[in-house]
Amino acid sequence: MIAVLVAALATAALSQSSLVTVRVDTTPNHRLNVIRPLRAFGAGVDSDSKGKIPLLYSGSRTALARKAGLGTLSYRLYTELSVQDWHWNTHGRFSAASRNEGYWTSEASASGPVLVDSFGYLLPHRGATRDQGDDDGYSVIDDADPLTYWKSDPYLASRYTHESDGIHPQWIVIDLGRSRPVDAIRITWTNPYATRYAVQYWTGLDAIADQGHGRWHAFQHASVNNDHAGSVLTRLASAP
């Protein structure tokens, strides 16, 4: 590790046409940090298809994993990428059991059948512009039905963060499918509603997956102050 770091520093210095001297202090009691390979280097499990867990933890697979010399194995649930509710236990109940919908509560007991798989389920009012998990869905902010609604993340509100809402702004990206001229926006707010917001437009290929090649621009009348719910029509620019 020291050799790699020194080489990197020396290369960077020489590339700037300057001569430097690098001294490495190997005195044990002068150390600044400690790296324990068994903790620092490991592997991760992201997701596997249904029924794959018994194979993953079979004797032969476990032996191969241990031969790699990695000390830790971590697990990551990618349900947040699709704004899903993760059910660690397939045994449980819905809050509206008669309609098989609502909020799900898993059984806390570990007794009963062996649980091999766990699943994520799409939240009905998820605040995701794009599904970056399985890429099989997205939340609809406008389905032409004024009786349905899109809801931003309630857990970013001060009730849960115990911080000012001003430091946790929320946003939505609207993909129009292709370049279109825009000079106004109409938003039908329910309650609660945003009292202050801004509208921008993107120039570039992909505002989510390719943020390095493009930028957001403020409309001529980007900042909007709003004092009521209901339908609000805002003229954003004198020309599209």
Explain how this protein is built.
- This protein is of the alpha+beta class and 240 residues long.
- Helix content is 15%, strand content 25%.
- It is built from five helices and ten strands, in the order ααβααβββββαββββ.
- The strands form five sheets. It has a two-stranded parallel ribbon with strand order 1-2. A two-stranded antiparallel sheet has the order 3-6. Strands 4-5 form a two-stranded antiparallel sheet.
- A hairpin with a 4-residue loop joins strand 4 (92-96) and strand 5 (101-106).
- 2% of the residues are buried.
- The model is unreliable at 1-14 (pLDDT under 50).
Strand percentage: 25-35%
The overall pLDDT, averaged over residues, is 81
Q: Can you count the helices?
A: 5
The structure class reads alpha+beta
Give the strand order of the largest sheet, numbering strands 1, 2, ... along the chain.
1-2
Provide the gyration radius in Å. 26 Å
Helix residue percentage: 10-25%
> What is the terminal-to-terminal distance?
56 Å
Overall form: extended
Describe the biggest sheet? 2 strands, parallel
Q: Give the ordered list of helices and strands.
A: HHEHHEEEEEHEEEE
Number of strands: 10
Could you list the spans in which at least 5 consecutive residues all have pLDDT below 50? 1-14
Topology:
Elements: H1 2-15, H2 37-40, E1 42-45, H3 53-56, H4 59-67, E2 72-75, E3 84-87, E4 92-96, E5 101-106, E6 119-122, H5 158-161, E7 184-189, E8 196-204, E9 214-225, E10 230-235
Parallel strand pairs: 1-2
Antiparallel strand pairs: 3-6, 4-5, 7-10, 8-9
